[in-house]
């Protein structure tokens, strides 16, 4: 069901307000996606295939321990393939104009302290 003109205008106004008031949130949620780590994906798929083959071999020769090892290898391969790499966990680049605290002091802050600092910056007009 399409939106009415009034609803469409209201939605566009809300989007503009969000982009204007909370640019940091918009940058963290939308837009850029991290590139997948193809090496981890390939290694994970290979480990999964080896794990499946080991699991089937363990069932074929009726060795429970071989089947369990195959399952563990297969599970580890899947985890390796779907887990983001170190680059995905890296901190986002800091914006140029704003004076930031050192990374160590920022990492020791609690969640509420970060929210309070963000609120204070917004109220001061720094955004």
Describe this entry's structure for a reader:
With 127 residues, this protein is mainly alpha-helical. The chain is 71% helix and 0% strand. The protein is built from 7 helices and no strands. About 10% of the residues have low confidence.
Secondary structure elements and their pairing?
Elements: H1 5-21, H2 23-29, H3 38-60, H4 64-82, H5 86-89, H6 103-108, H7 111-124
Helix pairs in contact: 3-4
Percent range of helical residues: over 70%
Overall geometry comes to: elongated
Number of helices: 7
Q: How far apart lie the N and C ends?
A: 37 Å
Task: Describe the sheet with the most strands.
Answer: none
**Based on DSSP secondary structure assignment, what is the total number of beta strands?**
0
| Rg | 24 Å
Which band does the percent of strand residues land in? under 5%
Determine the structural class based on helices, strands and strand pairing. mainly alpha
Q: Which terms summarize this structure?
A:
127 residues, 0% strand, elongated
Short description:
This protein is mostly helical and 127 residues long. It is built from 7 helices and no strands.
